[in-house]
């Protein structure tokens, strides 16, 4: 939610030409992608809550993939400047797809681990006989 | 070949005695008993060598290339007579302790004869050695096996004597080692050219070391302190050998190695004369007969050292004085040996049939030591007086001073006679090895010096036998007046003692006014003070370095501790999740910006 | 038997150094997995390996010393640098000493450790240690020397820590700290030198290129020399770096006998001799001006070691400090650049080894049989253990430098060498140190023979009585397998002392080496 | 193409795909069958990597386009000297650890099992069947999930080592990352948190790496390592503005990989992960997984970027972080009281050694040495010396660390504690184990006769030749520190008895399920001993290693 508001504000600023910077469409997306990635990373690195961190991880992933798409567009654009349609470099797009798949896999694994760590909230509190310590104290994940 | 034989037979016997220890106790005892019986025969090859090996002949030289640094042995002018008397004395000593009935034999006599054999080998080794290394080998073997003789009775006195003897002989050994290395590196490895080599470099140093080294053995003042302690402690046979033969090793050392030098000669002469006379003063007040004899040895050795000193002072006379010294040593060895062996003989055989024989023998030996006319003593003194005629010491002719030594020895002998006559008797019926060996030594004492003097010692200057004193009245009187003077003095003292004029302390029966080994107390305390002072200083230094090192290592470990704490603080900071993230972000932006600037800069 | 050895065909010779090194390595590999109770097999392997090693040395002696063969074996190890095993007289000298004493110490250890645990581990590391020592002696260039030098450190650690008590572990840790520090210093020196000069092959007058290096830039050459000698000085127990030796006396007797009298300490000194003679060459070292400080340091170590020995009451500690001072004789001799002194130094390498091993054997025997660890407990031991005391006395006289023993020969050579060199004051160091040696060995000998057993404090007297035989109530049975090696080495000390100028006696080989180096 | 050529090419492809196939297959099998399959696959991979190694040492680089598709779209596998060496080390360590895991299933982790119910069949990946609420869960030792994950990780590693282009390297890295996180998670309760943290780090690292790769592609137009390398060198020659993008890409790639290799400031995740992982997994993590990231870094720095002078700052930063790693890692290792964290910190310290060569690469021909008469290392050799030194150090570390972690894990499983003070005197009961720890300590400290020594020697000589004397100081400090903390770990095990001869009492050994297992555990101790022996024996391979690295070297 905080994320959406910040991108919106940035977009408004650019529209207003306040920044006085003439951006081609590709550079605009590059900037946007870097912004999303940086925000995601900062958010991920600073929160304590695991789930929020996982989501922030996804946001960083998306940000970086946006950068790659922008790069793909830039190189396609430079390849045939007067090219007909919105040419995207095929190789980089393949790169993006694989990146997405891998981020999803990691998110799945992360979710399972978080659920394990927070000790099956669905089936009630379970004192783990073997390790003794309370299962889900938040500092555990430091 | 004969040299090798004379050196090896005693060693073989000692080895056999040692190895016997491995067998079963019973057989061990019988084999050892039988071996000690053979022990006196071990000296026979040495006697043969002395008789047959005239210097320069084939039998008189032996070269063993593989031993030490190439060992050379030779019988030369000086070695031959000393070899003979050493062989005779050791033979007599071995005889005295082994050819006696089991009941009278001392406890552990086989150990005693083993040590005697070892010191015999060492002793003749020093005489026969012709190169510095073998000389030192003989000398060390002799002095350390002598310790075994002194400690034999294991009494507290014997222990103290051995301790003192060991300390002094270690000091003397080291000094001699340094001197020999100096001589050898100066080119004097072979003894024939040792004095010349010693003269070339570090002469003063070498002389000092030789004085100290051989002085300990020859009993010159102030190094004589171990003699009066060792002789009473050692068994009589051992002390006979100690003063008869071992002390002469010091003499042969000086003759072989000492280079000429006026100052050295003068110093040695003064020490010798002090020794000769002071020993008499201290000896007279002693109660133990063997201590008296020990002091008599010190005074006689003073006499011989004076001769050697003269040889240094006036190089031309060196040949004559050395010859005279050797003859006198031969006489003194046999006579003193007879006296020492006589002490137990008097104790066992003074009563009964053998009494007269004992009296005659002791009287003869005593007169010889005193230098009465017609005895070997007179011959020795005559030859020495001839050699040193013309030397002045503080205005008084040396040939006047030397006879006074005779008076001194007469006084000592009279005191000895007085003490020995009142000693308790433990008569033995049948004559055994002890008596026989004593008689042998007395006979040799009478005959051998004359034979040696006439035929063996060719005066290198006139190249013929040393002048044998003709019995005209002049020489007779020269020989007798010192003795008469001595007797008169003794009579006066005796009368004073009778009248109670002498101070009580002097004649008190128990402790003699001056403990035997007089200077020893002073030297011991000196040594102890030096040792403790040095030790304390070194310990303090050690403590200081120890604490400095301690302080330094504390500082070091404190710094290391601080370093570790700092690192673990940093680690704790870095461990946290946020910090890794923060660090990453900072690193990323920092590096990117830096490279951009750099690139911006040069592109 | 010797003639048979001489017929070993020429081309087999280069294989001998490799075989020598691999021999004890295979022995070690064979012994490690052996179960504890297979005593026979373990003893068999040990003794055959040791015996064959001594035989090979005997086979090499005529070839190397007489007709100057230099068998060599090399294998690639690092780019541009090979592992080279070369046999020259100095190598033969040290390898001969260590293999002979390894044979004797193995016999001794077999008896000594009869009752104790994990013997396989002990003998495994024991033969590894000898592999390292033989490797050190045969190494042909500085890198191979360094490899075996470090191997020696690693392999001797478990031996020092054998008893596994916290005290022995602490001592082993300190030893490792010193030895690793030294090893690192040598590593840096070797890297730096080989960077300048390439593979540093030992050559008679100094490795090629080193003399130019010393000429062109002396400062790094000096630093390299200091690093090398400092690193080797740790094992050679030179003054500031000797702290570990007395502590390592906690190890079992055979370990302190072989290691601290022969292998470890001698490796350090052997290294210094190699660096001085075959890496820098004596002229270059003199040009660098390092010889006099080295001489002063060695002299100070001699006096300091003897002084410390004087203050120790424990026998093994006293022997340890005496080792520290005796080993510096070798450095003293080599640092004085003339044939006589160098011969004295090199021959003392062997003589000190033989004498010190005898003393450690006897110390082990005293500790084992009558539980005597301090000098005062030794009183009257002469009557109860006559043969051990006799061996100890021979060793002690050797240390003092009295004639019939080998110590006299080296002391005489060093003395004459000192006077021939331009440092005559060294003679007084020798004299002083023989006095100090006498000061701390003669009381022990006196206590052995002349002190009465009665005034021995009762409990050591009682402990000895149990095993004494009937006839002499005090005589104690000395175990054969411990006694025989001690007597052999004592006999060797006397034999080498007396027959010093025999054909291949240590003195002749040492003179041959010294003449080879100094011309 | 003649027969043998196609055979080795087949091996090249098979070495990646066979473990992947086995991993998939093992999911379907029971736990006993998985162990057999695991051992078989490791033997197969060992067999496959041998011909590759032989072919490469004879001097040619193997290239295989999978399925015939040429480079832009198809996957090209390329095996040169560097990859052959890493492949071989991974095969050896992998095989030995797999045999260990097969011999001691208890070492493969802990699983949560409902008390009464037969252990539910394990579905794919790590999703556990939902447990019934009432039956109390109990931890059982041994987790069958180990095998599929480990074989998958192995195939990922091989993919990274032989991949010809950057994108495949990325895919390989991801596969390794994913399976490694899961493997850590097998370690039970406290391992989950560490696994999660490792996950975040891995993903972050790979995202940075991905952006870097994309940047390089956008500049050079190709993903293939060799082609992009040539393109970049041309760019550098023309001094093109795009060079800035390449430098930025290198920064991102280096930092991403530094995260994955746990270089010091970014090493927070490694200690909990490696020390709480099961005893069969932590050797794999320390010895192999972080090596993949190092391998890619070397590829990027030497093959792709070619030593660009502009990378000066980044090189010095990384080298600084490396030195900090050595010092901090060692000091922290000294302060640990438990064995596994100590060894983990030792890994952090050893990682520092591998980054020391970067400044060397940038200006190897410094003038420092022109004046020396006897310089042996001519100019080109400094680069070769530095690289072979680093590779030797990495491989030596792999072998030694695997053996050390296996032994420590073994002790921890047996006595359920790895507190050093409690394990005093363990040497008496496990002489073979302590012996192998000693041998690996020799390898880690870098004493002679070990790969570590040859590595340090090569690095030191080339550093001195290039005038970077500071490396010598760091190496010496590192050696001393490593000696200190390894001694601290191994020495207490040798204690036999207290000073007053009282026997030492070890904590009560875990009760083993069956007698048969006892013999197997005894046998299992052979694995660390074998690895320890290898660390020492490979000491002789210094020359051979430099030769192999010449094959396909960028200069």
Automatic annotation (TrEMBL), chain A:
Domain of life: Bacteria
Entry keyword annotation includes Transmembrane helix: yes
TM helices/strands, residue ranges: 26-46, 53-72, 92-114
Subcellular location: Membrane
UniProt xrefs under InterPro entries: NUOK/Mnh_C1-like
A cellular-component GO term for this protein: membrane
Stored Pfam families: Oxidored_q2 (PF00420)
Keywords: Membrane, Transmembrane, Transmembrane helix
Membrane topology recorded in Swiss-Prot or TrEMBL: Multi-pass membrane protein
Protein name (database record): Multicomponent Na+:H+ antiporter subunit C
Originating organism: Nesterenkonia aurantiaca
Automatic annotation (TrEMBL), chain B:
Main location: membrane
GO cellular component, one term: plasma membrane
Bilayer disposition of the protein: Multi-pass membrane protein
Compartment(s) of residence: Cell membrane; Membrane
InterPro entries the record matches: ComplexI-like_HydComp (IPR052175), NADH_UbQ_OxRdtase (IPR003918), ND/Mrp_TM (IPR001750)
Domain NADH:quinone oxidoreductase/Mrp antiporter transmembrane: 129-349
Biological process (GO), any one: ATP synthesis coupled electron transport
Transmembrane parts of this sequence: 6-23, 35-57, 77-99, 111-129, 135-153, 165-185, 205-227, 239-258, 264-285, 292-314, 320-343, 355-380, 400-423, 435-457, 479-497, 582-601
Stored Pfam families: Proton_antipo_M
Keywords: Cell membrane, Lyase, Membrane, Oxidoreductase, Transmembrane, Transmembrane helix
GO molecular function: lyase activity; NADH dehydrogenase (ubiquinone) activity; oxidoreductase activity
Name of this protein: Formate hydrogenlyase subunit 3/multisubunit Na+/H+ antiporter MnhD subunit
Protein source organism: Nesterenkonia aurantiaca
Organism lineage: Bacteria, Bacillati, Actinomycetota, Actinomycetes, Micrococcales
TrEMBL record, chain C:
Organism: Nesterenkonia aurantiaca
Organism taxonomic ancestry: Bacteria, Bacillati, Actinomycetota, Actinomycetes, Micrococcales
Major subcellular location class: membrane
Superkingdom in the source lineage: Bacteria
Protein name: Multicomponent Na+:H+ antiporter subunit D
Membrane topology, record value: Multi-pass membrane protein
Transmembrane keyword on record: yes
Keywords on record: Cell membrane, Membrane, Transmembrane, Transmembrane helix
TM ranges: 12-32, 44-65, 90-110, 122-140, 146-163, 175-199, 219-245, 257-276, 288-307, 319-341, 353-373, 385-405, 425-449, 482-505
Domain NADH:quinone oxidoreductase/Mrp antiporter transmembrane: 139-435
Cellular localisation: Cell membrane; Membrane
Protein family (similarity comment): Belongs to the CPA3 antiporters (TC 2.A.63) subunit D family.
Signal peptide: none
UniProtKB/TrEMBL annotation, chain D:
Residue ranges crossing the lipid bilayer per the database entry: 6-29, 36-54, 82-103, 144-161, 167-186, 198-219, 243-263, 284-301, 313-335, 342-362, 382-408, 429-449, 469-487, 526-545
Membrane topology: Multi-pass membrane protein
InterPro entries the record matches: CPA3_Na-H_Antiporter_D, NADH_UbQ_OxRdtase, ND/Mrp_TM
Highest taxon above the source species: Bacteria
Pfam families (UniProt xref): Proton_antipo_M
Organism listed in the record: Nesterenkonia aurantiaca
Key words, A-Z: Cell membrane, Membrane, Transmembrane, Transmembrane helix
Protein's name in the database: Multisubunit sodium/proton antiporter MrpD subunit
Single GO biological process annotation from the record: ATP synthesis coupled electron transport
Localization: Cell membrane; Membrane
């Amino acid at each position: 939610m905080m994320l959406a508001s910040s991108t919106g504000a940035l977009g408004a600023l650019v529209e207003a030409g306040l920044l006085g910077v003439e951006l081609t469409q590709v550079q605009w997306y590059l900037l946007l992608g870097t912004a999303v990635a940086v925000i995601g990373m900062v958010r991920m690195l600073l929160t304590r809550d695991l789930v929020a961190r996982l989501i922030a991880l996804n946001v960083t992933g998306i940000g970086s993939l946006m950068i790659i798409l922008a790069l793909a567009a830039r190189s396609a654009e430079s390849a045939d400047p007067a090219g007909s349609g919105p040419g995207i470099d095929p190789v980089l797009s393949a790169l993006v797809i694989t990146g997405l798949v891998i981020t999803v896999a990691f998110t799945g694994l992360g979710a399972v681990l978080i659920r394990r760590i927070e000790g099956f909230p669905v089936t009630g509190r379970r004192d783990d006989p073997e390790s003794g310590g309370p299962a889900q104290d938040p500092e555990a994940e430091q | 070949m004969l040299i090798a034989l004379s050196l090896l037979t005693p060693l073989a016997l000692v080895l056999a005695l040692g190895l016997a220890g491995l067998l079963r106790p019973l057989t061990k005892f019988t084999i050892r008993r039988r071996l000690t019986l053979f022990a006196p025969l071990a000296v026979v090859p040495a006697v043969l060598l002395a008789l047959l090996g005239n210097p320069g002949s084939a039998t008189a030289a032996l070269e063993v290339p593989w031993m030490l640094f190439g060992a050379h042995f030779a019988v030369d002018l000086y070695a031959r007579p000393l070899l003979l008397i050493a062989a005779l004395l050791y033979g007599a000593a071995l005889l005295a302790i082994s050819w006696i009935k089991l009941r009278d034999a001392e406890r552990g006599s086989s150990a005693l004869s083993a040590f005697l054999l070892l010191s015999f080998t060492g002793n003749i080794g020093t005489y026969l050695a012709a190169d510095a290394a073998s000389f030192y080998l003989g000398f060390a073997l002799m002095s350390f096996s002598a310790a075994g003789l002194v400690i034999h009775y294991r009494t507290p006195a014997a222990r103290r004597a051995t301790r003192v003897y060991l300390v002094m002989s270690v000091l003397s050994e080291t000094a001699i080692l340094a001197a020999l290395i100096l001589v050898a590196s100066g080119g004097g490895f072979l003894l024939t050219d040792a004095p010349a080599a010693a003269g070339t470099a570090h002469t003063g140093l070498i002389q000092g070391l030789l004085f100290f080294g051989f002085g300990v053995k020859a009993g010159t003042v102030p190094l004589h302190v171990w003699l009066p302690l060792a002789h009473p402690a050692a068994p009589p046979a051992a002390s006979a050998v100690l003063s008869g033969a071992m002390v002469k090793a010091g003499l042969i050392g000086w003759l072989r190695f000492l280079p000429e030098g006026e100052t050295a000669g003068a110093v040695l002469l003064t020490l010798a004369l002090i020794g000769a006379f002071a020993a008499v003063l201290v000896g007279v007040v002693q109660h133990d007969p063997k201590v008296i004899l020990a002091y008599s040895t010190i005074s006689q050795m003073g006499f011989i050292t004076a001769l050697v000193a003269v040889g240094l002072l006036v190089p031309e006379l060196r040949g004559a004085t050395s010859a005279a010294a050797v003859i006198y040593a031969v006489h003194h060895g046999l006579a003193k040996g007879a006296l020492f062996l006589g002490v137990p003989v008097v104790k066992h055989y003074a009563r009964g049939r053998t009494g007269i024989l004992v009296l005659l023998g002791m009287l003869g030996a005593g007169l010889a030591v005193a230098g009465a006319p017609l005895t070997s003593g007179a011959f020795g003194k005559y030859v020495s007086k001839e050699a040193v005629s013309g030397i002045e010491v503080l205005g008084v002719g040396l040939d006047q001073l030397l006879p006074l030594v005779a008076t001194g020895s007469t006084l000592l002998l009279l005191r000895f006679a007085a003490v020995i006559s009142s000693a308790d008797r433990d008569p033995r019926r049948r004559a055994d090895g002890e008596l026989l060996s004593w008689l042998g030594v007395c006979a040799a004492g009478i005959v051998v010096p004359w034979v040696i003097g006439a035929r063996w010692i060719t005066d290198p200057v006139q190249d013929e036998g040393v002048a044998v004193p003709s019995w005209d009245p002049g020489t007779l009187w020269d020989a007798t007046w010192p003795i008469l003077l001595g007797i008169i003095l003794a009579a006066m003292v005796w009368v004073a003692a009778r009248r109670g004029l002498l101070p009580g302390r002097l004649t008190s029966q128990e402790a003699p006014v001056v403990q035997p080994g007089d200077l020893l107390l002073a030297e011991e305390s000196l040594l102890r003070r030096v040792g403790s002072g040095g030790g304390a200083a070194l310990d303090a230094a050690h403590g200081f370095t120890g604490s400095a090192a301690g302080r330094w290592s504390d500082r070091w470990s404190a710094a290391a501790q601080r370093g570790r704490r700092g690192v673990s603080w940093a680690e704790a900071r870095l461990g946290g999740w946020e910090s890794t993230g923060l660090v990453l972000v900072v690193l990323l932006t920092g590096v990117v910006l830096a490279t951009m600037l750099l690139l911006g800069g040069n592109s | 038997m010797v003639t048979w050895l001489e017929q070993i065909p020429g081309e087999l010779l280069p294989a001998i150094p490799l075989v020598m090194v691999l021999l004890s390595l295979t022995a070690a590999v064979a012994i490690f997995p052996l179960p504890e109770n297979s005593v026979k097999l373990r003893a068999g392997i040990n003794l055959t390996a040791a015996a064959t090693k001594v035989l090979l040395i005997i086979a090499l002696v005529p070839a190397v010393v007489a007709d100057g063969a230099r068998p060599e074996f090399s294998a690639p190890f690092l780019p541009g640098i090979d592992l080279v095993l070369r046999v020259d007289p100095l190598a033969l000298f040290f390898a001969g000493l260590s293999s002979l004493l390894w044979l004797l110490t193995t016999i001794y250890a077999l008896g000594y450790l009869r009752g104790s645990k994990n013997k396989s581990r002990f003998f495994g590391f024991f033969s590894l240690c000898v592999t390292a020592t033989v490797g050190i002696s045969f190494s042909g260039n500085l890198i191979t020397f360094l490899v075996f030098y470090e191997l020696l450190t690693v392999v001797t650690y478990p031996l020092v820590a054998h008893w596994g008590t916290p005290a022995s572990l602490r001592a082993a840790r300190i030893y490792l700290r010193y030895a690793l520090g030294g090893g690192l210093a040598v590593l840096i020196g070797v890297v730096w030198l080989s960077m300048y000069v390439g593979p540093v092959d030992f050559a008679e007058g100094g490795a090629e290129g080193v003399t130019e290096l010393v000429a062109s830039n002396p400062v790094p050459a000096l630093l390299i020399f200091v690093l090398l000698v400092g690193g080797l000085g740790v094992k050679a127990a030179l003054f500031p770096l000797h702290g570990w030796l007395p502590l390592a006396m906690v190890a079992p007797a055979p370990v302190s006998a072989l290691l601290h009298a022969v292998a470890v300490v001698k490796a350090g000194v052997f290294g210094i001799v190699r660096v001085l003679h075959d890496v820098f060459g004596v002229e270059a070292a003199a040009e660098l001006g390092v010889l006099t400080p080295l001489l002063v340091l060695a002299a100070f170590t001699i006096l300091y070691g003897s002084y410390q020995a004087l203050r120790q009451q424990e026998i093994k500690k006293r022997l340890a400090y005496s080792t520290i001072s005796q080993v510096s004789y070798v450095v003293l001799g080599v640092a004085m650049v003339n044939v006589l002194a160098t011969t004295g130094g090199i021959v003392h390498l062997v003589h000190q080894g033989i004498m010190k091993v005898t003393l450690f054997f006897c110390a082990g025997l005293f500790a084992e049989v009558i539980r005597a660890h301090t000098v005062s407990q030794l009183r009257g031991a002469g009557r109860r253990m006559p043969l051990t005391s006799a061996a100890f006395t021979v060793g002690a006289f050797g240390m003092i430098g009295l004639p019939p023993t080998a110590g006299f020969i080296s002391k005489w050579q060093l003395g004459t060498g000192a006077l021939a060199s331009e440092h005559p004051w060294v003679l007084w160091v020798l004299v002083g140190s023989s006095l100090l040696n006498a000061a701390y060995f003669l009381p022990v000998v006196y206590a052995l023979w002349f002190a009465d057993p009665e005034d021995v404090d009762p409990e050591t007297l009682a402990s000895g009585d149990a095993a004494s035989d009937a006839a002499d109530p005090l005589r104690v049975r000395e175990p054969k397998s411990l006694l025989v090696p001690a007597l052999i080495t004592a006999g060797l000390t006397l034999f080498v002392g007396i027959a010093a100028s025999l054909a291949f006696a240590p003195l002749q080989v040492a003179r041959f080496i010294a003449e080879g180096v100094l011309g | 193409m003649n027969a043998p050529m196609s055979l080795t090419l087949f091996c090249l492809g098979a070495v990646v795909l066979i473990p992947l196939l086995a991993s998939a297959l093992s999911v379907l099998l029971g736990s006993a069958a998985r162990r057999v399959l695991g051992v078989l696959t490791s033997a197969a991979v060992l067999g496959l990597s041998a011909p590759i190694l032989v072919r490469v040492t004879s001097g040619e680089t193997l290239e295989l386009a999978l399925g015939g598709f040429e480079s832009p779209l198809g996957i090209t596998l390329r095996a040169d000297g560097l990859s052959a060496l890493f492949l071989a080390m991974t095969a050896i360590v992998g095989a030995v650890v797999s045999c260990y895991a097969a011999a001691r299933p208890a070492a493969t982790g802990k699983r949560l099992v409902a008390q009464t119910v037969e252990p539910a069949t394990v579905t794919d990946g790590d999703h556990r069947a939902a447990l019934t609420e009432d039956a109390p869960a109990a931890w059982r030792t041994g987790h069958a999930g180990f095998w599929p994950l480990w074989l998958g990780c192995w195939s990922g590693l091989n993919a990274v080592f032989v991949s010809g282009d950057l994108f495949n390297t990325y895919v390989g890295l991801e596969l390794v990352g994913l399976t490694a996180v899961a493997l850590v998670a097998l370690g039970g309760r406290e391992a989950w948190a560490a696994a999660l943290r490792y996950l975040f780090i891995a993903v972050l690292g790979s995202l940075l790496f991905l952006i870097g790769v994309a940047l390089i592609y956008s500049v050079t137009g190709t993903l293939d390592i060799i082609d992009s390398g040539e393109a970049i060198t041309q760019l550098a020659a023309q001094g093109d503005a795009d060079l800035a993008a390449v430098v930025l890409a290198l920064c991102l790639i280096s930092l991403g990989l530094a995260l994955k290799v746990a270089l010091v400031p970014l090493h927070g995740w490694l200690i909990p992960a490696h020390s709480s992982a099961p005893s069969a997994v932590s050797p794999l993590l320390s010895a192999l997984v972080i090596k993949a990231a190092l391998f890619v870094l070397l590829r990027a720095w030497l093959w792709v970027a070619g030593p660009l002078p502009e990378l000066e700052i980044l090189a010095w930063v990384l080298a600084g972080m490396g030195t900090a790693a050595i010092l901090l890692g060692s000091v922290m290792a000294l302060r640990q009281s438990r064995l596994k964290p100590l060894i983990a910190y030792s890994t952090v310290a050893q990682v520092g050694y591998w980054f020391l060569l970067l400044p060397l690469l940038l200006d190897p021909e410094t003038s420092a040495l022109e004046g020396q008469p006897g310089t042996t290392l001519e100019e080109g050799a400094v680069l070769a010396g530095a690289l072979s030194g680093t590779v030797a150090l990495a491989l030596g570390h792999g072998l030694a660390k695997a053996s050390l972690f296996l032994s420590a894990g073994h002790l921890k499983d047996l006595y359920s504690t790895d507190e050093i003070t409690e394990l005093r005197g363990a040497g008496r009961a496990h002489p073979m184990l302590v012996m192998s720890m000693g041998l690996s300590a020799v390898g880690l400290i870098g004493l002679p006769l070990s790969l570590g020594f040859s590595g340090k020697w090569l690095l030191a000589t080339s550093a001195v030749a290039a005038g970077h004397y500071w490396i010598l100081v760091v190496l010496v400090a590192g050696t001393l520190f490593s000696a200190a903390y390894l001694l601290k770990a191994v020495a207490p095990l040798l204690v036999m008895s207290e000073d007053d001869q009282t026997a030492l009492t070890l904590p009560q050994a875990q009760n083993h399920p069956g007698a048969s297992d006892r013999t197997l555990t005894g046998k299992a101790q052979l694995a660390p001993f074998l690895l320890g022996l290898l660390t020492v024996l490979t000491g002789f391979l210094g020359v051979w290693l430099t030769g192999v690295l010449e094959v396909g070297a960028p200069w």
